[in-house]
Specification:
By secondary structure, the chain is an alpha+beta fold. It has three helices and ten strands.
């Protein structure tokens, strides 16, 4: 009689499996639905020497602040952008506010080197100077992707 009772005992209540599957689906959607922030590696330099910056600001095309992000351990959290979105990036470095306009969302997938170069300009940046100009400084962001394209955005301060 004991054997018969054990055989007839159900391990699950009716509908328990269905409830468990539903719970797992809800948990999976909650985890996958969360925004996983992209972290972008960044380093700063002034005349080729390491420097520090604590914060980066991102503005939309009409000048509204989209996000302000701290720099921690050489990384910052990228704002939520589509690849074709453009933002203006403001960084305080070496007592100056560097402004880089129209940085595409795709550039947040790269490592960044942000810096200031003063005369005599390094050979890495001297080629970027337009002819017949004599800038006092070059502000730059070098984007290093996995493919190694090394795109540079430069601002010439007169």
């Amino acid at each position: 009689m004991k054997k018969a009772a054990i055989r007839n005992r159900r391990l699950w209540e009716p509908g328990a499996v269905l409830k468990l599957v539903a719970l797992l689906c809800v948990i999976g959607l909650a985890v996958n639905g969360q925004d996983n922030p992209r972290r972008t590696k960044i380093r700063f330099e002034v005349d080729g020497k390491p420097a520090l910056a604590k914060e980066i600001e991102f503005y939309d095309e009409v000048g509204h602040l989209l996000a302000r992000r701290g720099v921690t351990d050489g990384f910052f959290e990228a704002p939520a952008l589509e690849p074709s979105d453009k933002v203006d990036v403001h960084i305080v470095l070496g007592g100056r506010t560097l402004v880089f306009q129209e940085i595409y969302g795709t550039k947040f997938e790269c490592e960044w080197t942000v810096g200031i170069d003063t005369p005599p300009f390094s050979s890495e940046r001297a080629w970027t100077i337009p002819k017949n100009t004599k800038p006092k400084e070059i502000w730059f962001i070098k984007f290093d992707s996995r493919e190694g394209d090394g795109t540079v955005v430069a601002v010439f301060v007169k």
